[in-house]
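Quick one, tokens below. Sequence please?
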């Protein structure tokens, strides 16, 4: 019996390894596609910029150091991204009302509008790509993504350094 159990375990391990390899390959493909399509959604808004703007909107503004900590990035990397968003007039710095030594990044009206446009374009692209999927598959896929991302704990939600 022991040999049969070992064989079963080997088969399961090989199948799991193959599945993990497929997942890794497909997630890499997904990330490449996401970066490539970001420019088509809005020429001034890379995937990184979109991610940072979304974070600022979600938080109601935050410091650049908060962005760096959240995405586990070097401050200089975030500084370059923030400078580009400021030049595009998508974000602005405001003094923190509780501590005037601190500057908080906020979306401008233009930043809010562009973020909304790109968000809707991205939603539509996902709807088109998933149009033929049964509702149960969509729910299962969403739950798997949530479960996968939750397993990482406080891992960054995206890779803004990739731009």
């Amino acid at each position: 019996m022991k040999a049969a159990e070992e064989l079963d375990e080997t088969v399961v391990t090989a199948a799991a390894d193959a599945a993990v390899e497929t997942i890794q390959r497909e997630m890499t493909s997904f990330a490449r596609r996401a970066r490539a399509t970001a420019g088509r959604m809005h020429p001034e808004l890379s995937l990184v910029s979109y991610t940072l703007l979304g974070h600022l909107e979600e938080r109601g503004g935050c410091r650049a150091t908060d962005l760096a900590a959240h995405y586990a990035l070097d401050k200089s990397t975030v500084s370059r991204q923030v400078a580009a968003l400021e030049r595009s007039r998508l974000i602005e710095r405001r003094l923190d009302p509780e501590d005037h030594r601190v500057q908080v990044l906020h979306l401008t009206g233009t930043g809010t509008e562009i973020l909304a446009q790109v968000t809707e374009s991205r939603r539509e692209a996902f709807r088109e790509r998933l149009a033929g999927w049964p509702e149960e598959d969509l729910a299962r896929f969403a739950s798997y993504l949530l479960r996968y991302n939750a397993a990482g704990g406080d891992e960054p939600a995206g890779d803004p350094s990739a731009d």
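The helical segments are 2-41, 47-59, 64-70, 75-87, 109-129, 135-151. DSSP finds six helices and two strands in the chain.
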